[in-house]
Amino acid sequence: MTAYLLARAGQSLLAVACVLALVFFMVRLTGDPSVVMLPQDASREDVARFREAMGFDRPLAVQFGDFARRALVGDFGKSLQYRTSAWSLIMERLPATLELAAAAMSFAILVAVPLGILAATRPGSIWDGLAQGVALLGQALPAYWVGLILILVLSVELNLLPVAGRSGWASLVMPMITLGMGTLGRLAQLARSVMRDALGQDYVRTARAKGLAPRAVHYRHALKNAAIPLVTLIGVNFGYMLGGAVLIESVFSYPGIGRLAAQAIFQRDFPLVQAVAFFASLVVILVNLATDLVYGLVNPQVRLQ
Amino acid sequence: MSRARRPWLSAGAGLILLVLLAAGLAPILAPHPPGLQDLARSQQPPAWVEGGSWGNPLGTDHLGRDVLSRILYGSRVSLVVGAGGVGLALALGLLVGLLAGYLRGWVDDVAMRLCDVQLSLPYLLFVIAIVGVLGPSLRNVVLVFGVADFPLFARMTRGETLRLRAAPFVEAAVATGASHARILLRHVLPNMAGVLLVVSAFEMAAMILYEAGVGFLGLSVPPTIPSWGNMLADGRNYLTTSWWIATFPGLAIVVGTLGINLLGNRLRRA
User: Fold this and answer.
1) Which of A154, A175, A303, B52 is at 20 to 30 A from A217, Cα to Cα?
2) Which of B128, B243, B261 is facing A152, going by the closest CB pair?
3) pLDDT tens-digit profile of B136-175?
4) Are A194 and A222 in contact (CB under 8 A)?
5) What ipTM does the predicted assembly reach?
């Protein structure tokens, strides 16, 4: 178990190091980060002054060392548009994003898992068709466009829900559906296939033979054993939702981290972009690590590998 | 191939054909030049809605440009990004994956660790940020999508290479003294074509979705080029007054991605 923990933690550290390098070089892809960050009509003197103020005139290795050391304590400098600490801007937006991600994930799980189970236990039924249809649409529909259509129908035409912003549960409904639909499709598909496998196993036959009710067999015996791939998928997608709901938050002008990122990129506020990119990656890495550690605890087979 | 499965294949192929025809025949099919502005006829509704006319079958946008014509031309951007991005990702992925799976050792370790890292990052955020740094252009979008997506192909290729390396016909080729290049190109590569084709299809659909999403944020191709993403971005601002500007390009995206996904599902089962 210790070896598994160490190996897994080492992998995560490597990932953090790679992200730091990626975020550092991201603004240097075109050469001079000063040119990337300043408006196009900035004078040559302004660029020179900015370069010196930001320390971009120092050797690259020195800059990277300094950047990495400060990044690890959450110091990405000041946002160019807000003139305050980039990290604190992210922390301000975190509760909104957390709320939306939790709602979207709950929505996806509560619809997809029962649907997947119904589809697996009744092959060829209308539920089976529905699960496959949901899986296909989740993959093929552009969620941001579905968001626009929902606004058009539910807000503009029927006047049922607020168009945008964050004001109570009603404003959460449409962002929740659109952010959750992709995960819902993938989860329904996966739940259907893992449950089908599980239902063919001997322990399920035993449970049935001893006269357990179908519901108990499906949820308590089969689902529990089929849960690991589902938990992985949920973990990975939850990480993405927390860090990268860029499009959905923009569609609904939802004041979370994703919209902050979109605006920062649009305004060429690159210290803030770097901070968000690092934060989002860190969240994904940590959620993945947590997911893997949970398995290691639950499933002895994993730690032996 | 059973008859019952056939309709799925033809539905997918039909939708893809529709997009290909739109892209290829855009100059013939489009009723107007896609960039032609006519402010006197701005925000005209589709023909079947009151006030619409068959001169602009799907209506016009806020600058009086014909929505149908722009959708037809816009399919070209989506296809170029989808095909170009997947092509680049496939080429890089094949190179890295074949080397990693064939050479093993430290090459394999380093390549796969880096692929793991990249596959665990918030893809869309980085893609948008890097296109933001490089500046919005068709070339940059294809480049960034291709590079960002290649680890997936590298990992698939490596897995298949490992599997095929142990296959009897590869051992036989080694025994006959075939060169490394010959073994890889004549024996290993052709046998993984099917798997890679399926992944390519799904990735192409995903890239079309992402490109339109990046365009929707105003960060993909420049606004002068008609693309489905740019049209969505325009339409969003006129959602309450002119629903057709955002609705039809979205439907066009659905036709493309649904077609590719249907075909991909069919290929996967085959």
Assistant:
1) A303
2) B243
3) 889 999 999 999 999 999 999 998 888 888 888 888 988 8
4) no
5) 0.85
